[in-house]
Amino acid sequence: MPLITRFLLPCLLAPLLASAPTSAAPAPDSYAFPLGNPFIATITGTPPALQPEGLPADRNIDQDDYALTLRPEREFDLPDNFWSVRKLKYRIARQHQPAPLVFIIAGTGSNYASGSMESLKKIFYKAGYHVVQLSSPTSYDFMAAASRHATPGFSREDARDLYAVMQAVRAQNAELPVTGYYLTGYSLGGLNAAFVSALDEQEKAFDFKRVLLLNPPVNLYTSVSNLDRLVHTEVKGVTDSQTFYDLIFAKLARYFQDKGHIQLNEAMLYDFQQSPQGLSNEELAMLIGSAFRFAAADIVFTSDLVNRRGGIVPTDAKITEGTSLTPYFRQALLCNFNCYIRTQLLPFWREHFDGTDLPALIRDTSLHGLEDYLKSATKVGVMTNADDLILGPGDLGFLRATFGDRLTVFPRGGHLGNLTYRENVAAMLEFLHD
């Protein structure tokens, strides 16, 4: 979990962020994923009974965590709170014979060991791949230990950072017998994968055989604007005297009282939504938006701190492990994704890359900026959902025109809600296998 969130985010939100998806779409009436509400699907994910059978337990996977020293110049610059991320950690699961290797890039703010990453690892490992799990460029560990500029969001530079990490991973595991390289990522990680693939087309370090984008944003600015708006949803019962989290905790308390025990997992969340205490659409929307607001706060805080910009943390502030992060957290929460883009990313882009205006930055950070490459890159495919919360008007049309039969649009699933649904998993593996 990101640094500032690890100390301050209510424990309720941690299990609500796990979730992910799949090439030409099946007809809506042939797709049996049961969650028709995109908010519920986004939060609860696939019901356990509908997930693939026979996925390996952790004890049956030959896996280890490793660390890379990529930004040694920051060893003594980072605050004491960053002691755990002076090196970039990643996870690799190894087959016991020569095999293809798939890199997985995490979604917004997530590190290499998040729930969705673990689910994908088990899926691909069972299918016979070596699997490398990489943190998102927007996670505080990647920003601190791997990013040259610690200002994520300019997709071409994020891709260069990821590409350097991938090459360092290969060098650190030179003895691993690899028969070919594959690449995937979910949500923002899907967008990252597209830009890494385009970079590899020039550099040829991996010559990826297949690249799969799972529920990627088409226009990054549209996606973050959609998520920012969810926080402002009007929720019945939320007043000046009762916060949104008071309301959620009260509903959970009544649910657990009826159940007679406390257990937080995907099965519980699914069951909770079927109970009388289940959240309304407005409450679900605000919950999703709040979770992403915390992710935005981590990006705002970490980028400001690492670069000593002084917008959140005064440049002369001394932060130790005992320093309260609450004042900085509250200030960072006032800056959503749009705020981060305008106050940190856009000035950075203008200063370092001769950028111009916001519309130009939006194009350069989105799939539109790779349109010509993606139309011709037959190895790149997209899987998404018609009701994905991060898509905007025209986005599905762009995907259809750009990818053709390399696009699968499932009729429902919200954002990443059907990642582990059996039909989606089969489609993922079929695309990578071709």
Automatic annotation (TrEMBL):
Keywords, alphabetical: Kinase, Serine/threonine-protein kinase, Signal, Transferase
GO cellular component annotations of the record: membrane
InterPro entries attached to this UniProt entry: AB_hydrolase_fold, MlaA
Annotated signal sequence range: 1-24
Domain of life: Bacteria
GO terms, molecular function: protein serine/threonine kinase activity
PANTHER family referenced in this protein's UniProt entry, alphabetically: AB HYDROLASE-1 DOMAIN-CONTAINING PROTEIN, LIPOPROTEIN VACJ-RELATED
Protein name (database record): Serine/threonine protein kinase
Organism: Amnimonas aquatica
